[in-house]
C-alpha cells in the first residue's frame, strides 16, 4: 500500500509540473502577443526613441521571444520571478504582499460558505420540495445569477454607507494603516500577534462584507451540490434500513449520509476554495482590496509580463495543488478508491 | 457537537455586536488628510523619472524645486530665495534649507538633480531637452560657483523667463545627492531606490507606497516653510467611482478625485461638501492621422471640425470635465485668441467633403482609452460624424495599448488628452505646434504632432521663434500669430474641450487650492472640527 502511494504521489507531482509548464508557455505567448506596451509605461508617454530603446533593452524585450522565455525559465528555476515593472520590486516580494490579502479573504469566505452551504444543502435534500428546499433553491439561484459587482456595491450602500455596520473599502481604517508590522500578512492574525485587539476588530469589520459576498456566490454552488449528493444517498438501501430501524431524519443525515458524501463534498469545497483563491478580481476592485486579483489586473493593463506570469503560476499551482489534495483525501477517505488503485 | 454549535452562534452574535460598535467611528482624524483616488497610473515616485499627474501630486509635496509656479501662474521662489537674469543665463541664490535627512540643501544638490534628470533621459527630461539642454551639455550649462549659488546658462533655444517655468516643473525637483548616491546600483543614478523612497526637502516625506493600495506621507517637522498642520497624508487607491463616493459621504476620505460625472453630480449643492473644478490648461483632443489617405486633406479635417456637436457634447457628456475650446490655449490665458467658428454644420461639412472628392463618405477607426469621459466622447463623435457620411468604428483599449498605437502612428482617429506645463500660450500650445522632423525615420514618438504625421514646418519655426523672443510684447504677437496659423492649417490635432479635473472636498478641509499643473501643495491645508 505504502509503495503504491509513493509512486502514485510521484506520478501526480510530475503531472503537476507538466501542467504548470504548459500553463507557463501559454501565458508567456499570450502575454507577448498582447498589444500592451510595458516600455511606454515605464519611460512615459513623451520619452524620445533613444530612451525608449534603452529601456526596452534593459527589460530584455529586444531579444527574440524564445530567448526571453529561456531567460525567464532559467531565472525561475533559481527561484527568481524577475522584477515587476509596475512596482519595481521583485515579483516574489509583491506576491508575498498581495497573496496573504487574498488568502485571508478567501479562507474566511470558504469557511462561511461551508458552514451555511452544507447544512442548507442537507436540509434542502432532507425536506425535498418543502419551503426549506424552495428557499434554498432561490437563494442558490440568486447567488449564481447576480453579478458579484452588483452585490458588492449594494452591500456597501446598505451596510457601510446606510447602516454603518461594517468598515469600508480597504483592509483597515486609514488611521490604523502601517501600525501593524506584517508577519504573516494576514491582518487578523498579525493584529492579534501584535496585541492590538482594536485593529483586529477594525480589520474584521472591513473583511466581513467582502467575505460574505464572496461566500454567497460560493455557497450557492456548495448548497446545490450538497443537495444533489444527499438526494442520491437518500435513495440508497442503507438509508432506508436506518430509517426502518427508527433512526430520526437528522441523525440519518449526520450519522450516515454525511460520512458517505464527505469525499465528494471535499472536492466541491476544494474547487470553491481554489476559485476564491484565484483572486476575486471584481470583489477586490470594488472593495479596494490589495490582493492578487487586483495585482494581476493592473499588471495585465500595462503588460507587466513578469508579474502576470508569476501570478498565473501561483494561481495555477494553488488550483492544481488543491485538486491534488482533494484527490489524496479521496484516496484516504474512500476505501473503494484505495482498493481500485491496488 | 450541539455545544459546539451553540457556542458558534453565541460567538457570531457577539462579534456582530462588537462590529456594530467599532464601525460607528467614521471620521478621519483632524491631523490627517485622506485622499481617495486612482493610483493605477503611478509607476514611480522618482521625480526625475515619473511624469504622470497623480505621481506629480505626490512628489511635489516630497520635494522642493528652485522656483514654483503659483496656481495663478506666477513664478515664485521655493529653494531659491532670489535670482538675477542676465544676457547669458540665470544666477540663483539658495535659501538656508535642509533635506528631511538633515543634510543641508546646497548648490551641489541642484546641479546633481538637473544632471541626473538629463542623464537618465526618460520622458521627464523632455521639457528641458526640447529647449536644448541635454546629457552632453548639462555639466557645462548648469554649475555651482559656490555652495549657495547656482548658475544656469541659456542653451540658446529658450528665454530666461520660459526657462524659469520649466524649472518650476516637478521633474526638476532637487534631490538629496548624499542620500541618492548611497543607493546607486549599476549606474542607475539611484533610480531603483528613489522610485519607492523619498530624498527631498519638501513639507512631507514618503512613509510608504504600496502600488495600487496606498501612499502614506509623514510630515517633515523641520520643513523650512514651517511645520505643516497635517501630521499625515494618506492617499488611498479607490478604483471604483461609486465606492469612492460612498467613502466621501461616510467621512472615510476627505477629498475624492477621479469621480465619474454621475457620482460627481450627487455632490452638487450638497451640504458639507464643496466641488472644485481645477483647470489643467490641457485639452481633450481628436488626433487625426495625416498619413491616412483621407485625413491628409485639409478639407477633410475641416469637414470633421464642422462635423462635431461640441455644444451637445459639452452639455451631456463633458459637464464638469470640460468646456468647448478649439484653439489649444485656454481662453483665460494672456494672448489667447477666440475659438474659430467650428460648430456642428452638417451641410457645410458635407460640401467640404465633396470638395475634397469624397462626397460618398468613407470609414475610419477611432481608438480611445475605455475611460470616462473619453469613451462617451468617442460614441458622441461617432454619432455626429455619421451624419456627414463618415462611418466611425470605435476601438477601445487600456492606457498602454492606446498609447502604444498612438506612438506607432497606428490609428485613423484617436482621443488623447494633454496638460499645460506652464500657464501661458507656449505651455499649453507648444505640443500642438512643433514637429521638427515629420519623417517616419525620425521616429519622434515623444512628439505629439509627429504621432499624427502632421507636417507643419512653418508653425514649428514660429513656435521656436516665440520661445526665443526676449521681448514680452513681441512674444505676445507671435503667440497670436501661432494660434491663427494653427487654425488656418486645419489641425490634425484638433482640440475639442479644455480639460478640468473636478474634485469633491469634505467642507472640513480648508485651504486646499487645486493647482492647474497637478502640483497641489498640502502644507497649508487644515481641517476644521466636525460640523
TrEMBL record, chain A:
Coiled-coil features, chain-numbered ranges: none
Pfam families per the UniProt record, alphabetical: BPD_transp_1, BPD_transp_1_N
Keyword Transport: yes
Molecular function GO terms recorded: dipeptide transmembrane transporter activity
This protein's record includes keyword Transferase: no
Domain ABC transmembrane type-1: 99-326
A GO CC annotation given for this chain: plasma membrane
Main location (coarse class): membrane
Keywords assigned: Cell membrane, Membrane, Plasmid, Transmembrane, Transmembrane helix, Transport
Compartment annotation: Cell membrane
Gene3D superfamilies for the chain: MetI-like (1.10.3720.10)
Membrane topology: Multi-pass membrane protein
InterPro entries: BPD_transp_1_N, MetI-like, MetI-like_sf
Transmembrane segment boundaries: 12-30, 105-127, 139-163, 199-222, 265-287, 307-333
Entry similarity comment: Belongs to the binding-protein-dependent transport system permease family.
Entry protein name: Dipeptide ABC transporter permease protein
From TrEMBL, chain B:
Domain of life: Bacteria
Compartments in which it is found: Periplasm
Residues in Solute-binding protein family domain copies: 74-438
Gene Ontology MF: a single term: peptide transmembrane transporter activity
GO cellular component annotations of the record: ATP-binding cassette (ABC) transporter complex; outer membrane-bounded periplasmic space
SUPFAM superfamilies: Periplasmic binding protein-like II
Swiss-Prot/TrEMBL keywords: Plasmid, Signal, Transport
Pfam family of the protein (one): SBP_bac_5
Presence of the UniProt keyword rRNA-binding in the record: no
GO biological process: peptide transport
Signal peptide: 1-23
Record family assignment: Belongs to the bacterial solute-binding protein 5 family.
Name of the protein: Dipeptide ABC transporter substrate-binding protein
Species this protein is from: Rhizobium gallicum bv. gallicum R602sp
